[in-house]
Amino acid sequence: MSNIPTANQEAIETVRDLIKGIDTAMLTTVTEEGLVSRPLKTQEVEFDGDLWFLTMADTDKYEEIQHNPNVNVAYVGKSYVSIRGTAELVRDRAKIKEFWNMAYEKLLETTSDDPNLVLIKVKADTAEYWETGSKTKMVKRLFSKLTGKHSDTEINKTVDL
Question: C-alpha angle with apex 26: 42 to 53, nearest 5 degrees?
Fold first, then answer.
């Protein structure tokens, strides 16, 4: 077997590097009225194509994912990253305990044994990211994009995961 990374592995590594250290993501779900976004804490695991979030089963996002598992997860850090994927609701007590910490106890006002706790696993399909660089560079890129004038600077890339 070759040690040369595949395009898929390279894409996953790129996204992993871009979202590493960003604690909060915006999870967007589909409702009957349209799209809804809310902040969630990303679990501290190495991104391998899946993202993990902890929530309660008696929330709107839980119901929304049951009806339509298509989601988007957005990160803002040293770059902007938008990940499109499919969400799955996972009731795995061992995995919940693995991710649990005292911050959740205060935030969710419960313990890791609460049967209402559930994990959201997002299997990433594609990720789009924008390299920011300096603010001046970012403004210049944005301006050229808005005015329609051609720029040799690539503003963003999309990778299949």
Answer: 30
Report the run of H or E that residue 69 belongs to, with start and end.
Answer: none
Q: How would DSSP label each residue in 16-39?
A: HHHHTT--EEEEEEE-SSSEEEEE
Q: Hey, what's the torsion of the CAs at 141, 144, 146, 149, to 10 degrees?
A: -160
Q: Dump pLDDT digits (tens) for 5-42.
A: 577 788 888 888 889 889 899 999 999 999 999 999 98
Q: What is the pLDDT of residues 117-130, one digit of tens each?
A: 999 999 999 888 88
Neighbour tally for 114: CB within 10 Å: 15
Return the domain boundaries, the chain: 7-160
CA distance 48 to 45: 9
Task: Write out pLDDT tens, residues 38-76.
Answer: 999 988 778 888 999 999 999 999 999 999 999 999 999
**DSSP 8-state assignment for residue 104:** H
Give the separation between CA 147 and CA 86, rounded to whole angstroms: 34
CATH superfamily, domain at 7-160: Electron Transport, Fmn-binding Protein; Chain A (2.30.110.10)
